[in-house]
Amino acid sequence: MRFFIKLSEIMEGNPSSVAVEYGDEVDDALNDVKETGRDQREALPGEPKCVICGRYGEYICDETDDDVCSLECKQTLLCRVANRGMQVVPQPLERLPATDECFYVRDSDDKSRSQVLTSAQTDLLRRKLEINVKGNVVPAPILSFSSCNLPQKLLQNIEAAGYEMPTPVQMQSIPAALIGKSLLVSADTGSGKTASFLVPVISRCANFRNGHLQNQKKPLAMVLTPTRELCIQVEEQAKLLGKGLPFKTALVVGGDAMAGQIYRIQQGVELIVGTPGRLIDLLIKHDIELDDIMIFVLDEVDCMLQRGFRDQVMQIFRALSQPQILMYSATISQEVEKMASSLVKDIALVSVGRPNKPNKAVKQVVIWVDSKKKKQKLFDILMSQQHFMPPAVVYVGSRFGADLLSNAITVTTGMKALSIHGDKPMKERREIVRSFLIGDIPVIVSTGVLGRGVDLLSVRQVVVFDMPNSIKEYVHQIGRASRLGEEGVAIVFVNEENKNLFPELVDILKSSGAAIPRELSNSRYILSSSFGKGSKKRKH
Ligand SMILES: Nc1ncnc2c1ncn2[C@@H]1O[C@H](COP(=O)(O)OP(=O)(O)OP(=O)(O)O)[C@@H](O)[C@H]1O
């Protein structure tokens, strides 16, 4: 059984006969291939076993010759192999995996420049990469960074960053954003959304500057994010990708002196990255001209359009002259879709993978534990050689709680743990994140400030000590345990106090194939919520 689709056939073949190859069988056979390990049966004695999960190894992975039970386990296998540094991509532009987020088309020669997909090929490619698109005139996904006329220097910077191939969300949103489309994009945590807006922002800004010689350089693009930490990270990545181009950035966040930020903007920058509060402050107190802003990015858009941020974001938006808007998150509700569509006419909606669901690469281990026993349970985990995988982030619900818990960890386990939250000065927050990222601190206890967007590269374990207020935030928090499909673990403490989240949490756990603690599945809050779907709900 051959376990791949040949991209060369998408590219060259007659669209009506594009073959998805599973041995000699075509299309229909696709339905028979097990998507996940859960769809597969146990192996009978003497039968091959999946090298990942041990179920019936019905298929042979072409790239490694190992037995696997499903597309999901094949993906996991390929990720592992890739992480071990083995070359598993067989031929440039030859093979495209069925649902493999971390296994992309390699851009190794110039062939891709001339390749234009027909609409049938585009549909097939989108189906394979789980890309859904709604809206008019959305270009086909790109197969390589070099296929969309990016400035040469930007291509070099992308390569220097180690990005060999675009991820699926980049494949679709980069070409669409480059032609000026406004987009609402949802894709998994850790799937490369940041570069998917930075690449077009940098390209469009650099091209504009090269084409318009002006003395006064007003900002051309603005990215808003909900936290200072995320702004810092986005600006750093923008600098890296924009190096050597006419592309300067300014960071506008609270906690840093405003004078320096204004000075920098007045010297002429292309991109402002900031939090809404500080930006409004700056706009009210100082004369910053925003009329040249042509791209407005809302990262973590669902959070940015929530009460709390929405008014500030709208105030900033109204100060701009109808820019292209790019909006991104791993969690986008219908309400956000409606709000986004009302902001801008002719918006395109792009979603990659399973919207609003946790990243499949994060294993969720949910433990029922009473509030009074949570600390001890956490200490047990941190002191267990088997279960502790530093560096780890522990998420709590309050600033005070973060301080108390980090002290308690240090006292009880002897391990260095620090807290991070909104009451700490900016300088200290920067230093804490830096020490954590370079491995000086094995455990960081955080409120929501590190819950969304931040790319904590080496983190493979998070502990959700206090469940956040919504399942959306939960999806983002546990998403810190995996980047680009690498496997991670989220240990999650739940108890009766989180009852308002039980129905959604159980749905999420079921859809991820995670074990559900007995107390949770037997809870009357679950039983009553699933009782007679469509009939009236009981009131508690
Ligand atoms: N094409 C690529 N090739 C290799 N690595 C990439 C590529 N694109 C992005 N990355 C890396 O993948 C990691 C995750 O990307 P990023 O932080 O943008 O994810 P995200 O989708 O914004 O996640 P989240 O929703 O959690 O914010 C980063 O370390 C980034 O540098």
Automatic annotation (TrEMBL):
Keyword ATP-binding: yes
Organism name: Melia azedarach
Protein name in UniProt: DEAD-box ATP-dependent RNA helicase
Domain of life: Eukaryota
Alphabetical keyword list: ATP-binding, Helicase, Hydrolase, Nucleotide-binding
